[in-house]
Structure formats: C-alpha cells, structure tokens
Design brief:
Layout: H1 6-12, H2 17-20, H3 26-36, E1 41-46, E2 55-59, H4 60-76, E3 84-88, H5 93-105, E4 107-110, H6 117-127, E5 129-135, H7 143-153, E6 158-162, E7 171-173, H8 174-179, E8 197-203, E9 211-216, H9 217-231, E10 238-240, H10 248-260, E11 264-268, H11 276-280, H12 282-289, E12 293-295, H13 298-304, E13 319-322, H14 329-338, E14 343-349, E15 354-358, E16 372-373, E17 378-384, E18 390-393, E19 400-405, E20 429-437, E21 443-448, E22 453-455, E23 458-460, H15 462-470, E24 475-485, E25 489-498, H16 506-516, E26 526-529, H17 543-558, H18 560-564, E27 568-576, E28 580-588, H19 592-603, E29 609-615
Parallel strand pairs: 1-11, 3-4, 3-5, 5-6, 6-7, 10-11, 10-12, 12-13, 13-14, 25-26, 28-29
Antiparallel strand pairs: 1-2, 8-9, 14-15, 15-16, 17-18, 17-19, 19-20, 20-21, 22-23, 24-25, 27-28
Amino acid sequence: MNIRTQADIVELEKVPVTERIKDRNVLDLLRHAAAENPGRVAIRYLSGTGPSDPVIDIGFDEVLARTIQVANLLHAHGIGPDDTVTLLMPSLPETFSALWGAEIGAVANPVNYFLAASQIAGIMKEAGAKALIAADASIFPDIWPKVEEIRKAMPGLKVFRVGGTSPLPGVVEFEAACAAQPGDRLVAPKRLERDTLAALFHTGGTTGLPKLAKHTHGALALMAWTQLLVFDSGPGTVFLNPLPQFHVGGSLVGALSPVANGWTVVIPTPLGARNPNVVRDWWSIVERNKVVIGGAVPTTLAAIMNVPRDGQDLSSLKAFVTGGSAVPVELIRRIEREIGAPVIEGYGMTEVHCYSTMNPLHGERRPGSVGLRLPYTEVRIADVAGDGSIRRDYPVDEIGHVLMRGPQVTPGYLDPRHNRGAMLADGWLDSGDLGRLDADGYVWLTGRSKDLIIRGGHNIDPIVIEEALSRHPAVETAAAVGLPDTYAGELPMAFVQLRPGASATSEELREFCRAEIPERAAVPVQVVAIPVMPLTGVGKIFKPALRLDAAQRAFDAALVPLRSEGVDASVTVRNDPTHGTLAVVRIAGASRDAIVKKCADLLGGFQIRHAVEFNG
C-alpha cells in the first residue's frame, strides 16, 4: 500500500506495529532480502565517475554473507554483544557489511571521519569503544593518521584496517580476516529483539562533543518499512546514494531501507557528493546506471542543477528524495520544471532513525512542506515551557515546538544528562524545531528555535529571508543569521553563494529582498557573498560558522572609532566553553585603563561577551 493521504496512515495504524512489521532486527531484514532477490545486485560501487572506471556489483546473498562474517570476526577477537565498535569509513562496499555486522554482533558507532582526531577519540571514549574499523590511507588519506593518534590515546583498542596493502603491527587486516570466518551462520548469536541496542549515532554540531543517540533493531526495521511506503517506485528500483554512512540519511534511508526492500543502491565513489567529480558527472551517472530515485541534500540539488545535462537520457529518473535542511521552494519548482521528476522532501533527525515525515510520491506534494507524518509516528505542535513541560497543543496553522513520539523515536541518549530538555514526559521528543500543522496533516517547518533572529524582541524567521534570496537568479544558496547589534540585540543579515559565472552586488540583493519580503523588519541589513557556503559533513549549511562570521563583522565595525584614534586594535570572535561565544580584543601599545573603558563603551551593548588583552 502506498501512502497518499493522512487517512491512509490512520488506516494502516489500525493494525498494531508489532503485527504489521514481522522483521524484528537488521539480520531479519537482510535474510529476507537475500531470500527474495536471488541473483540480483544489492550494492553497486562506482570507483570513479567515468564510464570506463571499475564498477563492483554485490548481490543480496553476498551482502548477507559478508555481514555475518563481520559479526563472527568481532566475536573471534573478543568483541562482545554489548561492546561498541567505532567505524571511520567512507562509502565502500566493506562499509555496509562492517556497519550491519557490528549492529548484529555488537553495537555500531559510525563516526564522521572529517572530525579532528581528538573529537573522534572523545566520541569513542564516551561510547566505550572496544574496537575500531577504519579505512587505509590508500582509500582516503586523512583517516589513518587520525587512527594512529587515537591508538595512542586509547591503548588496548582492537583496530581493523580496510584496504591495507602491507601488515601493520597490532592491526588486523579486515578483508582477509573476514574471509576466514563463516558467512552462513553466526558463531555466537546476539539477542536481537526489537529493543536491542544496534548502534550509537552521534548528533550535534562539528564543535564540542556530540551526543550519542541510541538506535534499536526494532526501530531500524520499522524505518525500513515506513519510508518505502512513501516513495516506493516498484521492483527493480535503483537508488543513487551520495551521502556518507556516518549519517542516518546515507546509512538508513540511503542503504538499509532500499537494500531491505530489494532495491539496488548505487554508491558513487568513497566520498559521494563531497567528490566534485560526482557533482560534475551526476547526470551521466544517472543515465549509465538507470537511476530511478536520486538522494541528495538541498545543497547538492542546487549544485547539480547548475551542471549541463548535455542531452543525457534521464527517462529512468522518477524522483529525488531530500532532507537535512529546508529546500528552497524555487529550487523544487525548477527541478520539477526542468527535469520532470518530483522532489520528495522529508524531515527527521538522528533521534528518530532519520525521517519522521515525508511528502508522498503518490499523493499530493506541497512544496515548502515536509509532508505527512510516517505511520506509527505521532507529531504534535506544542507550547513547551523552559523546564520542558508541555503546556498545550497549538491549533492548526499556529507555530510551536515540533514534538514526536512512537517506536521510531530513540529510547534516549547514551549519557542520560542529554535527555534533559529533549526527552519530555510521556515519551515525547522535542526536536528543537519550530513548525505548524495544516488542516490536512502536512507539517511546515518555520525554523530552529535557536535559529530565530530576535530583533528588539521581535522574532524573525530566517527561512523567510533565505527563500526570498533563493528566488534571485544569481543566488545558488542563502543562509540568514543574526548580526549582533548593540541596540536591537540582533539584526537580520544573509550570506549567499552565487551561481557559477553569476554576479550581483550586495545592494542589488538587498533591494531584491525589499521587494520580496513583505515584513520590513526581516529585510537583511547586509547581504554578503562568500565563495563557498560552510557545510557539515553531510552537506547541511553550517550556521554556527556563519554566526561567528557575522559577529566578527559586527565587532570589527564597532572598533572603527577606536582605530580612528590611532589605537592598534584587532578582534577575534570564537567559541568559548564558559560564555558560548566570546569576542577577544587585542590591543598593542596603549594605556590600559583608558582602553578598557573605551572598549566597554563601544562593545558593552552587545549580547556577546568581550575580553580585552594587551600585547607587550
């Protein structure tokens, strides 16, 4: 049954979830997929993006056997069912068997390998990692030097290397060791019930120590079933997955769910969309592999729409699936107008095993909305107090906190302290997002509660600014943040990345905003073009970096009167463990008391704290 309306979801839920979903765990999913798809390709790995580059096809039966071999390998090396195995793996054929084998035989902990070694080690220590599976430098050079640092920080760690060519002391060669294990049975089966812990996925920014959200086998099985209901396009579907496997979009929606349902997943090179050649050759990859559904975050969608299609045959392409951040409505309309493939936008988070809402492929898609809730996942829009208590539900079309509840919601974070403010009473998860529900059950996001720009007590939704700028023909992506101001607290400003070859002045873009944004207070006081928008490891716009940039500009401007008096003053705005954000003013060759007072006069009105340091 395909979901078309909210009524379809209600009808499905008349059968209890434990009766509806027979598969209880990841092993069940892979066994059923192998039994139902003999001789068919589950994973197609593209070593390069050109037509002559080697392609590796892996069948469903081979995926199952390799996964079981990994689980047996871990047991053979003393890794127990409750032990954690960290993965530092780009998208390789071995990545999937390593991830799923670790979930079946232990607890998987895929980590963003772009993080610094100290951050990775911090995540591993919090997870209690006993083993590490990592790619050799010949596959991606940045990973193995970090592994060596981590080994020094965590003596006793069992390390497996994927893709190595010569032995290393104290390191197990992953492929050879796996090949020595049986692939037809588990030597020491782990208890795999619905509530059994399968994985710890980290969530949060790229600074500080992220939180570890628990993933269970039953929730993964439910995810594999519900998401197919929304965008199933029939047997033989080919799914292009350019997302990293340390993220739920790449590993769950982009891999586990399609493989469990008999699809072929195309993996374009180890780095996926981070490889510029993948973006450059996107349309030829679609043509050669007869891709039916393309997965991509909004920034990738914007980038590939600027790539010439040169008459390629894209008739196989039936839809794009996207999420991670809001997709500009104009970009959706452009894709559907020029490509003829609908854009299926969804919404979710690591804490709900990826998607919790999606626009239906076979029903009405509402651009700007993130769609209907998925079966067995409740969504409500509520007024949440500062202490986490839920005061009331908001009526239709009123904005509040987006809350979710159901078997697909995480049972919590590994560190119970992180549950405070997120895991609310009666099983509700506060997403931290603001949104509204319309009369037909579609969810409309209006921004992060922390992303609001507050101008003199007036809340401004950055999406209003971003959508307006995205309609300008020269703009590829846009992000709005608050510019610190000593009077209003914050003023709206925007950063844009222009399309290749396009040009537009700051004032031209501001004038465009004045015409497009009806709310005068929301018109950005500055629009700054930057060469490349800062992104997270999965392609989301990284707004913390833009907020620091905005604060840097505000403090630099505020120090102009001091510099005009001949004072050598510089300022650096940075993250601070005590104050959150701190502006450090450095002064050379001046009277201390007078300068400290002058800085207090100029900078004291900012909400961001400042400190004055003297050189010499």
